[in-house]
Design goal:
The two termini are about 30 Å apart. Helix 2 runs antiparallel to helix 3. The protein contains five helices and no strands. By secondary structure, it is mostly helical.
Length: about 120
């Protein structure tokens, strides 16, 4: 996660994910990355939040958002067929990102952000 060699490793991992988008093992964050990010996440909230309650709220909210993001990303790469228009659009745009335009469609969970930023055309 830190240092030049690890950045290149992350780029290779992401490259593998793009080359093999149906491989479930390459869809979720690697355990080694999670093992580094979780303590940093906890420490930053505990140090920077004005109260313990605010820190706990931030930890739970950001943790839940990260888990939801990972779950949605996993489902977009699975055989799951979306049942809502929003999720069908998320999956469609993410597949475009993988198979047609890797330099476009970055706003994964909120597709309208790509429209606002001009990266969804």
């Amino acid at each position: 996660l830190f240092g030049r060699s690890n950045e290149l490793g992350a780029a290779r991992t992401h490259g593998y994910h793009h080359a093999h988008p149906t491989c479930a093992a390459s869809t979720l964050l690697p355990t080694s990355t999670v093992a580094v990010l979780v303590p940093i996440h906890l420490a930053l909230w505990l140090v920077l939040a004005p109260t313990r309650g605010a820190a706990c709220t931030g930890i739970v909210a950001l943790g839940a958002a990260a888990l939801l993001y990972e779950w949605i990303h996993f489902l977009t790469h699975s055989a799951y067929r979306p049942t809502t228009a929003w999720f069908a659009e998320v999956k469609r745009r993410h597949m475009l990102h993988h198979h047609k335009s890797p330099d476009r469609f970055f706003a994964f969970v909120v597709p309208s952000v790509d429209d606002w930023m001009g990266t969804g055309k």
